[in-house]
# Entry
Amino acid sequence: MKIAFIGLGNMGGPMALNLHKAGHVLSACDLSAEACKKLGADGVPIAGSAVETLAGAEVVISMLPASQHVESLYLGSDGQPGLMEKIKPGTLVIDSSTISAASSRKVAEAGAKRGVAVIDAPVSGGTAGAVAGTLTFMVGGSAADLERARPVLEKMGANIFHAGGPGAGQTAKICNNMLLGILMIGTSEAIALGVANGLDPKVLSEIMRRSSGGNWALEKYNPLPGVMENAPASKGYAGGFGTDLMLKDLGLAQENAAAVRAATPLGGLARNLYAAHSLAGHGALDFSSVIKLVQKK
Ligand code: NAD
# Structure
């Protein structure tokens, strides 16, 4: 299949590479020359712009940071037309960025007017999941469009869920990430408490992993450097899932909670803790660096 892939960052890069390895014909692009160079070195064809990726594309995939990037790409900004106007009717658009459900619905509506099918398909599983092709996709859109996307999603992920209509994938994603943000802070507090009492963090982490406190952070993403060789914590908190991206997701969860009058006290507290962590200059570090807030210096 001919696939246009836009956004080659920590997640988009390895996702595009998996599609290339599976035999799809890609045309990929990113605003960052460095991101393009990295993927180009792996043999993925790089286009000069988003519009250029469209030549012959049957599927368009985007993996961008936030709502404003997705809206300006597809719908345009500052009087510039968006990409949607250039996408051939009949094409399938899969947006895997984590953005607001309202933005996803806007893009889907613009697509419907042009005869372009759009699904929101945000992911979970981190950069390791993106590299391994084991991501979880949470899809919003019609069941028929999800079936069209399935053969492509299967090359990047191990679990594919249909959450509901347009925007529903995003709603599922912010519920999940609100829980993850809270979990990472709780896990950090527990490890810091044990270490302050002289426990070996590896032993403590293993005890909690196999006990009732067991969770994804302890399984795959320990926040303390040196406990887990491949976790971002052991690589200077580089790569991974940025603190500012987690802050964005927790902000989306709070906006949504306000709109439906839901009570999310821990989600609100977590957003404020990541905001303080970002203000302290750690916005670009992986979100597990939030342990710095509670670690004994
Ligand atoms: P990233 O910042 O590493 O990559 C985003 C890329 O998009 C950058 O390379 C940037 O240059 C590019 N970009 C921005 N606007 C563009 C445009 N108009 N055209 C082309 N390229 C453009 O972010 P990431 O970690 O890859 O995350 C991408 C999305 O996936 C975010 O919405 C994030 O919340 C979500 N997500 C990330 C993770 C993770 O572990 N990193 C996990 C699940 C979901």
